[in-house]
Amino acid sequence: MSKHKRPRPEPETLGLPRVGVDSHAHLDGEEFTPEDIEPVLARAAAAGVAQVGNVFLGPAAFAAHKAFFDNHPEVFFILGVHPCDAVGVGADDLSAMEAAFRSEPRLRALGEIGLDYYWDSAPPDVQQALLRDQLALAKELDVPVVIHSRSAEPDTLAILDAMGFRDRPLVWHCFGGGPDLLEAVSSRGFHVSVPGPVTYAKNVDLAAAVAAMDPDRLLIETDAPYLAPEPWRGKRNEPALVAFTAVRVAELLGIAPETLWRKTGDNARAFFGV
Asked: What pTM was computed for the model?
């Protein structure tokens, strides 16, 4: 007798209203084709996602791919140079980013920027210099910041402190730490965005941190195509699946899923001004 795997539940079966926001996705990356955009965003809408923040990794990607979303005003834009791409970035790139922000109203935040010491694709000093340059640009433009920090939290926080970002609009993207990191981030007045791994059973420190989060400074995200939540772990992530993350976060906070969904959606709309 053959064994059949139980089918994975679709996100629309959770019954969430269309008020949620996926605060961070990479729908213009190589894991998606331009032809994927329509069905992916249709599935997101069916799952209750009202807006999606698409993150362009550098000014060249923005120039090449922004037209993918011409027919989708529900997608707002985030632009920055990732720390792993720091080598070779120069003044021309920063000037191109500045020009993009001054000409494109759909650009709502500068990111994801930060430090990544997990990968060795860029020396720490090069990453740090680029982070400072991009933080200075965010200040000049007066736009929110989306931070990426992996295996580099002390240095990331030190640079943010040195550049006067305490209590400025900043979201710690893809939060994966425990209560200590949450305290360091939240005490500076920053927002926190929780990704799909909060649904993984072994992430007990992350679960403990989420249970202590301030709902007023909480966002949720997919980081699509990466980090799909249970029960879709291991598959390509997409904005519709953020609904499963919302249900788990709501459980940890002891509130109703629809309440959490609406709250994080409102938080994202206020943070990004959309």
From this structure: 0.96
